[in-house]
């Protein structure tokens, strides 16, 4: 009788999990497609659905402006939000697993501060010398800034045994970069750095198919590598010490995780600026829905979830106060902060 | 019984510590295969440091650790990570905190060194996991969140996980720390049967000295940056060694290796109470008097009576009789003299035989002449 009960419990649990996974993935894919279409069809300019279909499938001749809006603005922007949202969420998840802390966000190691510092510097220098700044230049500056911080973090992580020390180092580097940025902005002319604040609030605008291709390749490769590391990531969930006794080369693996996570968040910061709360809220929501942390399952789910979240937020930012745009960080904060608060409260309740 | 000792881990002139600072030096130990070896010693002596060096979490400062592989001994550093994980598995004292992992998923982690690229379990792996769950009676907990079960249950699960790794050597760092007595016993018994039935070598640190004495085959004592003593349990657990190891003043408080106990200090002073007892009946009274800080005389005790062991430790004075000898008139006279000096006599139900017949005289005397007599039923 007992074994029968237990067998039933077992099949119950397995069945429930499978159904849950199925619905979560299907739901995410549906939301993804829905939001993608929404982002293409709706915007500050009114374009009829019929025209959109004509543009997408190259049927009838349509006005050049409308074609440009759809193909050169909305679609790249939608794709960028999808890819960068996914990248940011995965980056956050990796750091949370690494630090065994659900509040660790993709920027906890100071990457966005480094990027901002380089962007500030670039804005000042270029605007002084050339009176204008190429968006590609800003992208490269942000990338370079992120990579510099990554370099220092990796140096520190090699010498440091304790994870908290690494966290502190990251926070300190962040503070130093912020201090330098403030220093630069104090002595710069207002007109040079007026865009800095806007940049640091993040935005998906200004994307084109070239940058989307670059992002897709970079994010795609990194994500696949991370997914292939599902096994050691799972081991790390039991803790560093146990992971090491199961055969994981923890030292090397830590460096790889930091590198991959930082590449993802550097990519986001470079193309869209720092976007807050995505890296913390989305992993939490996905864990809540999926009720498992098995890396093979949760990594794709988090990527999709991040894409959905950012596309949704981008839609709100474009449409809510059209024709002007709300900064993306504002929107992600409005939606993301309550999620993080709920997470912290429920964590405390469980602990207490 | 084979007298040949098969060694599975050799520590050859090893110094262990952090950085360049050695915490324990010149360790020369051959750990016997298939036996339970326990490491004991005062706090901070370096027990965990030695374990960490064996499981490769810490580099040795000097010397080499060698592990038996097939018929040869390989230096620790040369063994590939995966092979080492198949040989040695670990259970640590730190609390593991997981998120959304079921008990079964934690146990399945034990198969890590055996699974492929994505960590998918083959049917054989699943069977091993199921068998382990059955052996540890964890079926009820299988699908529960690991974080939500009790500490005792967590330890069982972590031990099950360690066993799924199919090790030859199992290393545990204070596995009984967070457990109540029932679970302590249960865990240690499981370890015993593992060593015996599956021939797994077990190396662990324990704080509970009395449990170490009962469960171990060999003992390593660590103190003052060196191996204080190393050998079979009965050699190490002599009266003196434990007290010296932990710096317990043997006059006041001491570890009794015969009974595996520690008793608190004797109450000194002029005894005004005498306890007349035998066959263990006096033990309760001795302890009560000690707790109340009252010095007492333990009356006439045979050296092979259970009361004797505690009387030796707690009573100010007693009249001892050699085992199975008759009580002499001299002894009776001695006892009567003592009774005269007492204010109170506590009389417990006594067992009489051929050799202690004269005890009745003493009891009669006490009943007639004692200032106050308390009969305990």
UniProtKB/TrEMBL annotation, chain A:
<feature type="transmembrane region" description="Helical">
    <location>
        <begin position="296"/>
        <end position="316"/>
    </location>
</feature>
<feature type="transmembrane region" description="Helical">
    <location>
        <begin position="209"/>
        <end position="229"/>
    </location>
</feature>
<feature type="transmembrane region" description="Helical">
    <location>
        <begin position="132"/>
        <end position="154"/>
    </location>
</feature>
<dbReference type="GO" id="GO:0033214">
    <property type="term" value="P:siderophore-iron import into cell"/>
</dbReference>
<keyword id="KW-0813">Transport</keyword>
<dbReference type="GO" id="GO:0005886">
    <property type="term" value="C:plasma membrane"/>
</dbReference>
<feature type="transmembrane region" description="Helical">
    <location>
        <begin position="255"/>
        <end position="284"/>
    </location>
</feature>
<feature type="transmembrane region" description="Helical">
    <location>
        <begin position="106"/>
        <end position="126"/>
    </location>
</feature>
<keyword id="KW-0812">Transmembrane</keyword>
<feature type="transmembrane region" description="Helical">
    <location>
        <begin position="166"/>
        <end position="189"/>
    </location>
</feature>
<dbReference type="InterPro" id="IPR000522">
    <property type="entry name" value="ABC_transptr_permease_BtuC"/>
</dbReference>
<feature type="transmembrane region" description="Helical">
    <location>
        <begin position="81"/>
        <end position="99"/>
    </location>
</feature>
<keyword id="KW-1003">Cell membrane</keyword>
<protein>
    <submittedName>
        <fullName>Iron complex transport system permease protein</fullName>
    </submittedName>
</protein>
<dbReference type="InterPro" id="IPR037294">
    <property type="entry name" value="ABC_BtuC-like"/>
</dbReference>
<comment type="similarity">
    <text>Belongs to the binding-protein-dependent transport system permease family. FecCD subfamily.</text>
</comment>
<dbReference type="GO" id="GO:0022857">
    <property type="term" value="F:transmembrane transporter activity"/>
</dbReference>
<dbReference type="Pfam" id="PF01032">
    <property type="entry name" value="FecCD"/>
</dbReference>
<keyword id="KW-0472">Membrane</keyword>
<keyword id="KW-1133">Transmembrane helix</keyword>
<feature type="transmembrane region" description="Helical">
    <location>
        <begin position="21"/>
        <end position="40"/>
    </location>
</feature>
<feature type="transmembrane region" description="Helical">
    <location>
        <begin position="328"/>
        <end position="346"/>
    </location>
</feature>
TrEMBL record, chain B:
<keyword id="KW-0472">Membrane</keyword>
<keyword id="KW-0410">Iron transport</keyword>
<keyword id="KW-1003">Cell membrane</keyword>
<dbReference type="InterPro" id="IPR051535">
    <property type="entry name" value="Siderophore_ABC-ATPase"/>
</dbReference>
<dbReference type="GO" id="GO:0016887">
    <property type="term" value="F:ATP hydrolysis activity"/>
</dbReference>
<dbReference type="GO" id="GO:0006826">
    <property type="term" value="P:iron ion transport"/>
</dbReference>
<keyword id="KW-0408">Iron</keyword>
<protein>
    <submittedName>
        <fullName>Iron complex transport system ATP-binding protein</fullName>
    </submittedName>
</protein>
<keyword id="KW-0547">Nucleotide-binding</keyword>
<dbReference type="InterPro" id="IPR003593">
    <property type="entry name" value="AAA+_ATPase"/>
</dbReference>
<keyword id="KW-0406">Ion transport</keyword>
<dbReference type="GO" id="GO:0005524">
    <property type="term" value="F:ATP binding"/>
</dbReference>
<dbReference type="InterPro" id="IPR003439">
    <property type="entry name" value="ABC_transporter-like_ATP-bd"/>
</dbReference>
<dbReference type="Pfam" id="PF00005">
    <property type="entry name" value="ABC_tran"/>
</dbReference>
<dbReference type="GO" id="GO:0005886">
    <property type="term" value="C:plasma membrane"/>
</dbReference>
<keyword id="KW-0067">ATP-binding</keyword>
<feature type="domain" description="ABC transporter">
    <location>
        <begin position="9"/>
        <end position="249"/>
    </location>
</feature>
<dbReference type="InterPro" id="IPR027417">
    <property type="entry name" value="P-loop_NTPase"/>
</dbReference>
<keyword id="KW-0813">Transport</keyword>
